[in-house]
Protein: non-specific protein-tyrosine kinase
Amino acid sequence: MIPGKETKVEKAESQKEKHGSFALFDIEHFLRRVLRNWYWFVLMFFVGYGISWMYSKYYAQNIYASNLSLSISNNTSSYFTPSQSINFIWGQGGNQDGVYLKKMLLSRTHNEFLIKELDLFVNYSTKGVIKSTYLDKDDSPVFLQIDRKHGQQVNYPITLVPKGGDSYEVVLPEEGQSPNLYSFESESYTTINPFERPANKIIRVGDWYTSPNLRFRLLKNPVKPKIKLTNIIVNLNTVNQTVNDIVSTINVEFDKEINTIMIISKTGYNLNSTVNFLNMSVKQLQKKRQADKVLVDQNTSVYLKENLDNIRKKLDSSANVLNYMKTTEKLYDIKDRDEKSLTEIKDLEAKKADIESKISSLNQIKNSLESQNFEKMISTNAAGFQDGLFSASVAELKALYLKRREMALIYKPNSEPMREINRLIDEAKVSSNGALRNYYTAYYTEINKINQKVGDANSELATYPEKQRKYLDAERGYNMIEATYNSLLTRQNDTQLRMAANQSDISVIDPAKNVGQPPIGPNVKATKAGIIGGLLALPLLFILLGEILDSKIRNIKELLNATKIPLLGVIGNNNHENMLTVLDQPKSSVSEAFRGVRANVRFLSGEGGGSKVILVTSSVGGEGKTYVSINLASVLGLSDKKTILLGMDLRKPKIFGDFKIDNKFGISNYLTGEVEMSQIINKTRIPNLDVATSGPIPPNPSELLMSDKNIKFIEDLKKIYDFIIIDSPPVGLVADSYELMKHSDANIYVVRHEYTEKYMLKMITEKYHGGEIGHLGLVYNDYNTKQGYGYGYGYGYGYGYGYGYFDEDKNYKEPLLIRIRNKVQSIFNKK
Structure:
């Protein structure tokens, strides 16, 4: 039975089925291709491992993080240090003071103060052979102190090389000097005349170094650094750049269980730098908050005393009026008094007096904001509320006003920096004024409600005589003034108590500390995996792209599934010096494969008597149709069958060379009538094999092949020979072979492994399934025998498994994967 031979189906059904269509992607071939290129993956793994090792050792900059936790006390009261109390109007709760502190820690004002105070715009690092390492200020043996009145070039590395003792050589870059200099006083740029690169210079600690673009001196670190450095690289940054860099590395969170505990963290390239910054930041914040508390509480105490003095006078005057009415008018004992209504009115008016007192304090705060008189600001407690967000907006507004006054000395009113600072001030004013409007609205709403209730209660007193009502009005006026006085007195006592016990409301629970914590980044393991994985993906990607873009036939199984044409045999690649493999290497696996083709052709052509015409063709030249023709004719001749090989590829004659026959006269001469048939038939060293070569290339090969004389020529040969093998032109280039197939008993179509294009098989497949061509079979040529022909199909063709049966086996070495498989099988098969 012919491998791949399909049972015929009805024509109508076969026409509906699509043939000649190959899959875009062959997963099996792709995986085998990956396995064949295993060495690329091994190479990429080692390359990736080397690169990742170099990265982690010499290029990766470790990122460290330090944490600080602090507690915010609940007894704070000053304006700039709002407390944790719940806003009595809306019933709001939450850590408002924590929000305020968070805003302060992340504010530009606070961090700019630290930067200028600690010279954090000066950055230190050191460079080894490959890698640069960031240093903490205390890691450097010397500090660089700039002259803030002199313009400095920023982002311009200054290298200090120790020269022994207290001497250092100042080395500047070979290029990059700029006339645009930054002023650390005005935080603006100025331009000077162009200049040449300053020469290297040795200076001592304490001496000033001056160049057109720099002026600084070196100060000795009082603490001896633990590491010895061969160079110190100093970089200056602008204040704005430093603020942005620092704020972006700070994170503030609140404890999930106790929201008055804050956890502040900072990341950076140097652990000591993050530790020192956090501790200094909180220390400065404690000082500032305590100073603000003292100032605001003092202002509040003075404000409340002034109001108490005024209220006391009103209270004395009201008491005199009431006493006069009691003694003169004798109204101290009013009969049938409605004590319930009078008590209700007294309580309501006491509340009203308290709210009006708070509104008065609110007016004082508003006036201080509008007049920018922050030094006279009183506590929000005097106005009856504590609002951390409002306090933060006022603190920001205060800082912006100060900043604007500084900038007004440098910039013009309509300059871009001044417009920007004015915009920020307007935003802060909107925020603070909006909060005040909310409190005004709440207070006045409450007063309106009280007035309505007082009006209802007064209706119950309308029946009293005029003198009695006059006395009751005087008594109510006294009570309101007394309630206001008591409210102010209570707030003054609270303020004085806070001033007497003035302590910082921030207590550090765990300061930032260097305990040798490991870096938090970069994720070196993930980076290594990414580098190695990326390099391993490169050959995989190339193989995948090659597989997708590859249009050549590489898989026997796919070929047969797509074409549904029987497979006659698989021929291994020819390593012989000529095409006469069967004659010169009769015991080779290739010769045996041709014998298999010979047997299968008999099934294809039928078992009927008479001679058989076998036509061999292919898609294009170079696929091995002549090679198959020669060797198929050879095995037929060697089997005692009288055989003739016809070279009918008139456009490209080949056969004569391997048989060492003169091609002076051939089929083209016979068809044109120049010679007799006997003159073109040549004997070979196989007694039963004759060859008729093509002869000289004619001008009209198609007409000659399709001529009646050629058909008669084939019919005449059938009377003489058992088998007539026709080496015909490729059907992908000319249509000659299709005409000759009408007169053949069997047609062999040669497909070359990794050479024949898939699309070339579409026409022959369609003609076969359309019934235009019959008795067609495929020969798969030039297959890589080291893979075993069973790959992708399962027929077990090829050598390498003969174990000495074929000549090639003496030099054959099984592939590594086959040897491993056989070894495993031998282990499991042991009894």
About this structure: Residues 3-17, 75-94, 788-805 have pLDDT under 50 and may be disordered.
